[in-house]
Amino acid sequence: MTQDIVSRNAVQVKGSGTRAIIFAPGFGCDQTVWNTVAKAFEKDYKVVLFDYVGSGQSDLNSYDIQRYSSLDGYTQDLLDVCSALNLKNAVFVGHSVSSMIGMLASLRSPEYFSNLIMVGPSPCYLNDPPEYFGGFEKEDLIGLLEMMDKNYIGWATMFASTLLNDANRPEIKSELEDRFCSTDPIIARQFAEATFFSDNRKDLSKVSVPSLILQCSQDVIAPESVGQFLYQQLPNSTYKKMEAIGHCPHMSHPEETIASILHYLNKASVSGALNG
C-alpha cells in the first residue's frame, strides 16, 4: 500500500534533515513549481514533494471523477502521502488551493502537522457582501469554466497572465501555461470547479495547528482583504505581507518566499510553536 501511494502520487523525498516539510502545488500545477524553494530546505529538512492524482507524474489511472469532485479527494491524497511516509509533526507548505487542502487535512489528522504555511490562500473565492469579498462574482467563475470548455489553450494563456499579474515576467507566464496545458483539460476543469466554488470559511475557527499566511501584493486571485479575513479567523495565525507581485511567489520571487518561510519557522522554533 505504501509503495502504491508513493507511485500513485509521484512522491519524492529529498534532503538530510529529520523533520519533514511537505510542499503542495496549487491548482493546475505539479511538484516542479517548488523546485527552487524546496531545494533551500534540503540541508535541514526531509523535503517531501508530490503530485495530486491527475497532475504531473501521478498515476492518471487512479483518477476518479467522484472522488475528485470536491477538495475532499485532494485532502485524502495528502493524508495518504502522510500515512505512507509515516510522517508526524511535519511542516506543510501549500500554494493557493493547497493551503485549504492542508487545512482540511489538519482538521482530520492534526498529528501529521506542526505548522501550516499558506501561500496565497483563500477560503472562498466568491464575493459574499457585505461581510466578505473573495474577489469574484459567480458570473466571473462560470465564465472561467466556460472558457476552459470552449478554448482551453486560450484559457491557459489568459489565466497564467491573471495569476502572475506582472508583464515583466514572460518566462514565468510561459512556465505556467506549459503546466496548465500538460494537464488533461477535463481533469483541470473539474479541479477548477472544486477549487473556485469551495467555501471553507466555517472551518477556519476549528484549526488547531499554528499557521502562517503569506499574502502577495496585487494578487488578483487572493486579494489582501481575503488574507486579512483569514488572519482574523484562523486561531494562532501569523500574517506576512510580501513584496512579491501576483499569485505565484514561489515561482516569481523564490528568494523572498524562502526567507519568509525560514523567518517564521525559526521564530516558531524559538517560541516552541514548532512541535516535536
Summarize the structure in short.
The protein has 276 residues and is of the alpha/beta class.
Structural account:
With 276 residues, the chain is of the alpha/beta class. It has one domain: Alpha/Beta hydrolase fold, catalytic domain (Rossmann fold, 3-Layer(aba) Sandwich). It is 43% helix and 15% strand. It is built from eleven helices and seven strands. The protein has helices at residues 2-8, 35-39, 71-84, 97-108, 138-150, 152-164, 170-181, 185-196, 224-233, 249-252, 254-271; strands spanning 12-14, 20-24, 46-49, 90-95, 113-119, 211-217, 237-245. A seven-stranded mixed β-sheet has the order 1-3-2-4-5-6-7, with helices on both faces. Helix 9 (224-233) links the parallel strand 6 and strand 7 (237-245). Helix 1 crosses helix 3 and helix 6 crosses helix 7 (170-181). It is globular, with a radius of gyration of 17 Å. The two termini are 27 Å apart. The mean pLDDT is 94.
